[in-house]
Write a structure and sequence with these properties.
The structure is a single chain. By secondary structure, the protein is α+β, with helices and mostly antiparallel strands. About 40% of the residues lie in helices and about 15% in strands. It contains five helices and three strands. It has a three-stranded mixed beta sheet with strand order 1-2-3, with helices on one face. A hairpin with a 2-residue loop joins strand 1 and strand 2. Helix 2 packs across helix 5. The longest helix has 15 residues. The protein is globular, with a radius of gyration of 18 Å. About 5% of the residues have low confidence.
Length: about 160
């Protein structure tokens, strides 16, 4: 199953973005690939300008545009280290990085997405909202364990 949301420009639908994709764990493995390719073909015939496979939060692409774990040669700043650790810790739960790798099969054009926020004091609230959106059943105890894993993994000597 795939679900596509409309993308509007100047009040008209110009594209679609992939909202949800799911298949049964015992289902036909390439079913999602078939559904995405079929949707792309149908949407092109409808005259839409583009489709988006949507974002893969906490997964990054290197400058070459191919998905990879090693995304930069420069030393990451503090926030980047936290986001990388969070992405790594959440991979078994959500699979952001494997999602990016999956989407790479379609040879997409990668575009960086940015989040603007008024002040770094807003980040804990933003993090809580995003966590609830992606992992709604996460308990307070689970959150503490996750934070412990993230902080424990990146202690510097």
């Amino acid at each position: 199953m795939t679900s596509w949301l409309p993308v509007y420009r100047h009040g008209h639908i110009t594209g679609r973005t992939l909202d949800v994709m799911r298949r049964r764990s015992d289902g036909f493995r390439p079913a999602i690939e078939f559904l995405i390719a079929s949707a792309a073909s149908s949407l092109r015939e409808e005259g839409l300008r583009f489709i988006s496979l949507s974002a893969a939060p906490l997964a990054r692409t290197p400058p070459s545009g191919a998905p990879d774990q090693d995304t930069t040669s420069a030393e990451p700043n503090g926030l980047e280290r936290i986001l990388n650790a969070l992405g790594s810790a959440l991979e078994p739960v959500y699979g952001f990085r494997s999602l990016l790798t999956f989407k790479g099969k379609f040879h997409p054009r990668y575009q960086t997405l940015f989040m603007a926020y008024p002040d770094s004091a807003a980040l804990p609230g933003i993090a809580q909202a995003l966590t609830r959106a992606y992992i709604p059943a996460l308990t307070f105890k689970d959150t503490l364990q996750l934070l412990s894993r993230i902080l424990g993994r990146h202690k510097h000597p």
